[in-house]
Amino acid sequence: MNAVPMVGRARELGEIVRRWAHVAKRPRSGPSTVVITGNAGMGKSRLVGAALAGLHPQARTVLAGAARLHSPAPYDWLAAVLSDHDTTRLTVPADGLAWLAQDPHAPSERYAPDALLRLAVRTVRGLIGDGPAVLVVEDLHALDPASLNLIGELAGAPRLPALIMITSRPPDAAVSPQLVARTLARLSGAPGAIRQHLGPLSQEDVGQILAELYPDPGPVSASIWERTQGNPYWLSELLATTAGQSLDALVSEPLPGYLPLSALPEVDLTARELEVLECLAAGMSNKQVAKSLEISIRTVAVHVSSLLRKTGSSSRTEAALWAVRRS
Ligand SMILES: Nc1ncnc2c1ncn2[C@@H]1O[C@H](COP(=O)(O)OP(=O)(O)OP(=O)(O)O)[C@@H](O)[C@H]1O
Ligand SMILES: [Mg+2]
Q1: How many helices (H) and strands (E) does the chain have?
Q2: Ligand 1 pocket residue status of 7, Cβ below 6 Å
Q3: What is the C-alpha separation between 54 and 68, in angstroms, rounded?
Q4: Which candidate, 254, 266, 256, places its Cα nearest to that of 310?
Q5: What does pTM read for this prediction?
């Protein structure tokens, strides 16, 4: 499915796989947490995907979720998980489950926050059973406060038979940077937690990818490494737009979907957000943006909501106009 072969990240992968072997052998020794941070496109999700594919023994249960909605709603991570799993055997009160699943028909009677948090932990324990399970929390920086609290509780939950893999952009990319920074610190401080920060790929890594695709990429690999800044996302995009052309195109083609940062002086947008913004300016729907950038609709929704916030726009049309005015 991935056109670009996976390179580098061997140390990180090895660490995760070894930690899983420990969890699988001693499930009741408590959860193990892996916190993976890195800038947009640095390969956090790819690493998680590779780790999931390489776990021995295979995980019996995988609970995976990310922020689902434009404006973060409580327990978004768990709601995403619940939408994918059979909940009929859970011994959790149906009205509480309806709340946690963001069911629009949930009874209007509210739970106290603490009670709801306990129910959420119970729900996850119910889904995991005896485990061992893998919990995947993608894009923690985009999650709502209740989800952040829940993930923190799970990372410290006694005897939870699970490996918890968390990805996050740096806190300054979040809606609430302080809350995300505190949560990352709490998670990294959980007993036995592993912290991994993904930096750019090395020049050798980039050379290795090019060598899989072109006969003699040696002479240009340094300049391609430089222009993509070792960011695997930019490299993948460049390779996709120049597919079928000669190696020279990799050096001469402009980086795709790139609005010069100098055109946007007042607002600090990530590379991915700039691309989404370009798509919005081209009048695309979220579904079309997702297809064009090969990311999930959920991820597009998260980018759009952060774009609206950062550009001070009240609608996607306004954000698109903002882009046009500044280009
Ligand atoms: N180690 C790698 N080797 C080869 N390609 C990679 C590697 N890491 C990532 N990629 C490719 O780069 C692109 C971006 O990777 P990915 O989506 O994992 O980044 P991310 O850090 O999760 O980004 P975001 O912050 O937007 O979620 C994908 O096309 C992925 O296949
Ligand atoms: Mg990702």
Answers
A1: 15, 5
A2: yes
A3: 27
A4: 266
A5: 0.80
